[in-house]
Design a protein that fits this description.
- The chain has about 300 residues and is an alpha/beta fold.
- It is built from eleven helices and eight strands.
- GO terms for molecular function: hydrolase activity.
- Keywords: Hydrolase.
Length: about 300
């Protein structure tokens, strides 16, 4: 019997939107952790990854403050640890409800910070962790992205880039971050074969699960999360952490400079426990969508 639960559940006192879909009962759980921070992705996952519902019970969580889970953070304390606590609450709820000891965890970009950290802390809950656009060392990745932008910039953009601080610690760090990111996208280092994010916006406009107010909330949630979490995110560095109690799989776009895939491969080579690495040759930062059929095949292969 097909499963399609679109629901709001309370995690650590905060209502958060969760989509749970499968073509039949009793399929293994797969939890998708979106990027950002604050960049909800439900309509894109439904568009490009719905094939997974034949083999998994696919759970897409719109994290606190993101998309359909938007609320004003106000003066509350919101840190990476807050999201990890939410994640653990959700994993516990799902595994109990569906009577499964473990689940598959897919983390993209910001979500890969949560996913890899969670796998290290709670391997008993993870069948396998799949990192797409895996974050390793944010300071190094930011420098790589900045250098790519500078190498491709025109005269006017280069003048602006020379004023930017790619450590994103200065007074104008948010403006610098948004400008550098825009340049990376413009010159094809983020979404393969594209110079804008239009293909990632369209699914939201036509999704039956997203209203116009939801779209507005998504924009507000993304900006709020970046403002609140980016300084802490810049301190993330997995280098030196080489052992995980569950299998770790990296899915990397060969041309990703948004979050350097070259850095991900260097780090992967240091991991001492069960692991796999997959290059997606026609992808940058979004291999799970740019080459969704290949991604689907890879995920199904994990079941065998």
């Amino acid at each position: 019997m097909p499963i399609n639960h679109q629901t709001t559940i309370t995690l650590n006192g905060v209502p958060q939107y969760v989509s749970i879909r499968a073509e039949r009962d009793h399929l293994p759980l797969l939890l998708y952790l979106h990027g950002g921070p604050g960049d909800a992705a439900l309509p894109i996952v439904l568009k490009y990854n719905s094939e997974l519902e034949k083999h998994f019970t696919v759970v897409v969580w719109e994290q606190r403050g993101a998309g359909k889970s938007y609320y004003d953070f106000g003066d509350s304390t919101v840190t990476i640890a807050t999201f990890l606590e939410d994640l653990h609450a959700l994993v516990t709820l799902l595994t109990e409800r569906y009577r499964q000891e473990k689940l598959y965890l897919v983390g993209h970009s910001w979500g890969s910070v949560l996913g890899l950290t969670y796998t290290e802390k709670h391997p008993e809950k993870v069948r396998a962790y799949v990192g797409c656009g895996q974050v390793v060392n944010m300071k190094k990745a930011s420098r790589t992205g900045y250098e790519f932008a500078a190498a491709h910039a025109g005269k006017k953009a280069l003048a602006r880039l020379k004023k930017a601080d790619c450590t994103y610690t200065g007074e104008n760090w948010l403006d610098d971050l948004l400008f550098v990111t825009k340049q990376i996208v413009k010159h094809g280092g983020s979404l393969y074969g594209r110079t804008n994010y239009n293909p990632l916006v369209t699914p939201f406009l036509f999704s039956r699960y997203y209203s116009i107010p939801d779209l507005i909330r998504r924009q507000k949630g993304s900006l709020q999360a970046i403002k609140r979490l980016w300084p802490e995110l810049m301190e993330v560095n997995f280098e030196g952490r080489t052992e995980y109690g569950a299998p770790v799989i990296f899915v990397e776009g060969r041309h990703d400079v948004h979050v350097s895939s070259a850095l991900a491969k260097e780090y992967y080579d240091t991991i001492q426990t069960e692991k796999q690495f997959h290059w997606f040759e026609h992808s940058c930062h979004f291999p799970q969508w740019s080459e969704h059929e290949k991604f689907h095949t890879l995920m199904v292969d994990l079941l065998h």
